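Re-running Exuperantia RNAse H-like domain-containing protein to confirm reproducibility after the cluster update. Everything else is unchanged from the original entry.
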Amino acid sequence: MTIKRSTLLDKRRAKKHEKSSTRKFKTERKRLKKMKLAKNNGLEIREGKTYESEIGLNEQNVDKIEIHGPPEIKGFTEGILTAPILIFDLETTGLQRTSDIIQLTAYSDNNQFSSYIMPNRAISSSASGITKISVIGSQMYHDIQAVPSKLQNEAFTDFNDFVKSFPVKPLLVGHNIKRFDCHVLYNALRCHNMWNEFSSNISGFLGTLKLFKLLYPKRPSYSQTALVDEL
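Result of re-run:
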């Protein structure tokens, strides 16, 4: 009985090895590995590695090969404590810092801004799955509903005018903007020669991810969903 079982196991191993050696199997395994890696990278970029302990010690290693972020804004500390808070958020064509912005929203106590922006590049399937935004021909859709959109130059001009309308330079606030949103916004405005004017109309940026880590240390997760549910 033992010999038969051993022989059967040997045959199964041989069959499994033969299957794993085929081109089709290797291709599928590689595809699944890429999907898993892309999913993990997307989460880390948008939310940060909020599950990892002492992640703050490793932040200097993030995106070493990426382009540099926005330069320091002159007079950043001047009036920073009294600046009006302007919460902003971006949706993009992908997870790279050079991705196109496809939706830009911002709001404060008394003002709000929202615009869909026609991209110059295709929206990745993963980004479209998350944002529910797509483009067919010259029409943008959100959750299968047609939405009005603007060209990049027009949308960014409108956003700059919106920021400029504040009596006091606002402080732009977001949860994980240090890793992603700031860089994307900077790249977009720089490409349209608007960064210098825009940066002169704001007090600076504040990322709430690091703020929550200081106020609530040793939490298992600092994702926006977890913070809203538990605090």
